[in-house]
Amino acid sequence: MDAQKVDMFIMTNGKYFESHQVAGIRDRLISLDDSKWSLIQTIQFKDPTTSIIVSLLGGPLGIDRFMIGDTGLGIGKLLTCGGLGIWTIIDWFMIMGATREKNMEKLQQALI
Amino acid sequence: MPYGRKKLYTILSLACIAGYTWLIFTIQLELKNSGGVCLIKRVTGIPCPSCGSTRSVLNLLHGEILEALYINPFGLIIAVIMLILPIWIIFDIATKKRTLYDFYFRAESFIRKPEIAIPLVLLVILNWIWNIKKGL
After folding, report:
1. Which residues on B lie below 8 Å from A99 (Cβ)?
2. Residue B85: CB partners within 8 Å, gap ≥ 6?
3. How far apart are alpha carbons A26 and A30 in whole angstroms?
4. Helices (H) then strands (E): counts for chain A
5. Single pTM value for the model
């Protein structure tokens, strides 16, 4: 794919991924066929900033986990008062990374 | 698949161990009306949908099923999960199968369907209202 297009993608979506993944994503996209571009462009990524806000407000109910698509863990968090409050606090620090991981999975599924 | 098998089993085992530790801790210290760990209750004074589930599980341990259901029906779900999970994990590891792993993700996508998810969310909200009324 055109390097300019890829750089544009990285510029707009770079914040949705872990910094160590960005270089790899760039290489993958450059070697990708042009026909996939429209598909890649339409993927909606979840914003880590939104998930940290949701985690701060709705963490004890597991809403953050439900939001990023971890339904199973969300239920676990909901049933246990946010993991007795401990998991809630851990997730305040983990949820941004978890969101970025989810975004990476989404992109990988589109690339296959 | 979002997680590797190992990662999922580690998370689930840790959750189980934490659950049993909490249960033993509560029984040992006889924290009958603790409720002190719930962030929502601490901050707002209003019980959360799952407040009282420790008391509910303790009641189940004493065989008082109706009492347990009255305090919080979530206790029953938690007790069933806590009983089944360790056995299932050990079975899977021992036989090198991935039945729990497959079941977990099938259950996840089943629950995510709107026709299932919306009634479940409503049930949780109803339980929450009931909890507030009971004043747990």
Report:
1. none
2. B12, B15, B16
3. 6
4. 8, 0
5. 0.77
- DSSP structure string for B30-99: T-TT--TT-HHHHHHSSPPTTTTHHHHHHHHHTT-HHHHHHH-THHHHHHHHHHHHHHHHHHHHHHT--H
Q: Which of A59, A89, A60, A63 is nearest to B51 (CA)?
A: A60
Digitized pLDDT (tens) for each residue of chain B, 136 residues in all: 556 778 888 888 888 888 888 888 777 776 655 556 777 777 777 888 888 788 888 888 888 788 778 888 888 888 888 888 888 888 888 888 888 888 888 888 888 888 888 888 888 888 888 888 877 7
Q: What are the tens digits of pLDDT across the range A69-91?
A: 888 888 888 888 877 778 888 88
Question: Residue B71: which of B57, B56, B49 has the closest Cα?
Answer: B56
Distance from the Cα of B93 to chain A's closest Cα (Å) equals 20
A55 touches chain B (CB under 8 A): no
